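Page 47, continued from p. 46.
Same chain as before, 539 aa.
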Amino acid sequence: MLSEHIFSDRTYCFLAGAGVSFDSPSNLPLARDMVYKIVEVLSIEESLKVDIKGQFDRGNLRFEQFMELISEIFDRDLQVLNHLSKCDSPNLLHNLLAEIANNDHHIFTTNFDCLIETACTQKRIPVQTVFSNEQKCRTNTKIVWKLHGSLQDEQGLDTRKSIVATITRLGQKGESFSNDPFLKEIFFDRIQHQDLIILGYSGSDDYDIVPMISQIKSRHKIFWVFHDTQISPFKVFDFATFKKERKIIPDAIYKILSQGNWKEEQLYIIVGRTSEVLSAIHNILIKNSGSDHYEIEYKIPSHYYLHWSFKHALEEWRNLSFAGKYFLLAGNYGEAQSYFQLALSQSEETKELSPKIYVLFCLSRTCIKDNRPKEALAYLETIYSILNGGQKSRYFQLEQKILKSVGRDMVEYEQQLAICHSELGNFESALAILHKAECQKDTIEYARGLYEEARVMRKMGNFPKALSLVEESVGIHRKYGNLESLSICLPFLLDLLIEKKDFSEVKERIPELIGICKITNNEKLMSECRQLSEQIKSY
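Result:
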């Protein structure tokens, strides 16, 4: 019985995912529907379309990664998401969450739409959309915490920049909450002090919400609602019982348990219709209250998906670049290089410099990933040559506005340049470029610079300095929960500790890295960690 676990005198945290906005009358599409529809309007080979869909279905291509590619190459401002703001028809779940928020429970959502806020407004509940520490939380209002940003705020003002930033850091960089530790603080604080109820959320992401939850130390409970239209009335399982009755356990559950901060007895699974579950929770928390459910059909016209495509999707250099980026993401550097070379030829036919600069940057990145620094440096210097009338220089700067035109920033550019010089043995040049890069301290970019400088110092034989730099880098990435970056920095740190023969410290560090591998499904690195653990047992 749900009443044995949910109590009217307690405050709860709710985490609402995309599934909340799927039911009628909202009818907003899930991630899979969006990816499939967008892929179909691209002018890429049919075999590649099939491959992309397959990789997405198998979990090898995350929604954020796909949308980052779309944003970078075709649709910088993500106009393709406009249909999410066209819908103004909250469904039963939105209405229930609005009333729950009005009773001082905490509402977090990963959704870009504003249907919870719309439901609040329709019920005359004062509400505020918050997704950044730059916003001042108003008194006497109920807050909807938008963990991935929002297309609009509660007043209908455009805030899509918050979504573009999220897509970039989640898709391209594999970061979570890194641009706004304020959100992480709020999220951690609430879940440390209240039970968490998750609904409409699959937990399939590798780098975002689930890893954050796994790092929280709490004595409270998690109630995860798994939507199943075949089960009515719904069933409540403790995790031990759920394991016995279900052959397939979602990976997200094990990822939450992987860090050792949560115990199995803290997890409860609720299986059934999400609307029935939330209605029951609502009735426990808010007695003598009903919620209207307006049966208004809202269909997504196809042109909301297609209108953006006709401007850019037929440009051949963009489609070839998309294919190149897709293969680069998959680690197939040969295919990536081939497509980028074709894209470079096509970019020559355009009258603008930005396409050619963008493709050259992609080629440089591919070469760096494929351990070909000399070629990478040549591409970077070609960019400089284009922008500076044929003059070349060993050290060069590009104006920030030019880099922004191709979706890059100065710090990232200079770090790429430093990597090339470091790999070519030009250590002094690499250090000069890294030190010249203007980067605010205690940021992700600053941490990346520290790591690259540490790598240079190691090559120069200055192991104490390398160790100090990478320790500082790890500390910053750990603060922001950037598991992708930690999975790069920590192995380097372990190597330095082994060279120092500090095996006791290595033993203490390995469990953290193994935990990160479990969350990110990095089986290769996990195997290496376990082998290392066996090798140093005797020390």
